[in-house]
Amino acid sequence: MEKLTYEEAYELVKKEIHKALTKSPRIINEYLTHLSASQGKMIRAVSVLISAGDGEGKINPGAVQAAAAIEIIHLASLVHDDVIDNADLRRGQETLQKKYGKRTAVICGDYLLSLALKMVSAIPEGKKYLDMRLSDYISRLCLGELLQHINNKNLDLTVFDYIKIISGKTAALFEASFLAGALLGDYSPEEVKKYKKIGNYIGLIFQLQDDCLDFDKTVETARKPVQSDYEQGVITLPLIHALERLPEFRKKASNNAIVRDDINQAVEEAGGLGYTRQIIDRYYEKAERYINKLDTTWEKRMRIASIVRMAAGIKEEA
Q: Which domains does the chain have, with CATH numbers?
């Protein structure tokens, strides 16, 4: 089968996702069509496609199905997240649970997971499909979410515990994206391991950067609820740092006597955002080291590096 340019593959991924959401069975079509009205940056799909590129940047067509499937899995996780968080807004529009109710949203999220597995199973190279272990990554995603839920309001949560949580709930799908791309790019097992590492670091960076956004973005710029993590019981790294550094604040939090302004003030006083960005920088450096070790072209390394910058919220120079 003839390979695709990146531009061709990217357009096909968008079409695959749109078709999957808008050509669904009539009973669920209205709900999934609502989801198709807004698309994110498709950073995971981009990761699959760039990783799959050969020395000339050409891409195995199977990467289209893999990229679309991983984006659908991500969308399913967002639908479920919005139910858990009782969120009203996602990507600038009304959430599925807000518009149609929680039960409908949960069932639609489940349907999306089945749709993704069906999509990725259509990849002609059967062994590569099995080697992607996508069902294992879905399990990691679910267990990460469950671990976060179990630790809701846990003021004793350590940095190590938190990294373990986000390694599942966010980093797993990024790792899956780079793994899928590397497998479909026919890279050696040694190279595949490097791509997996890069994906994992990007996922950690992405989540930690999102933790910072909860403190310094507005609803209008973030296009989703902000300053809401603690209200949902979620303890993130900036807050963990403040709890570790400020005994009086921790005591007040233990007595359920804090409001959002207290959290913002404590995080600022303890340097929680600065600390979190230091951790981001560490993972950024690790990702860069693995990118430089890749047996590929300079152009491809630069494209992967641009994904790292995007995850870290670094704007590309014009």
A: 6-311 (1.10.600.10)
Alpha carbon 275 to its chain's center: 21
Q: From CA 168, how far away is CA 177, in angstroms rounded?
A: 14
Strand partners, 152: none
Return the structure tokens found at 83. 């139910």
pTM, entire model: 0.93
- The pLDDT tens digits of the residues spanning 272-304 come to 999 999 999 999 999 999 999 999 999 999 999
Q: Which two tokens stand for residue 318?
A: 């014009």
Q: What is the pLDDT of residues 190-217, one digit of tens each?
A: 999 999 999 999 999 999 999 998 887 5
Rg of the chain over CA atoms, in angstroms? 20
Other beta carbons within 10 angstroms of residue 177's beta carbon come to 33
Q: Of 128, 125, 132, 1, nearest to 59 (Cα)?
A: 1
Say if CB 280 and CB 312 are below 8 A apart. yes
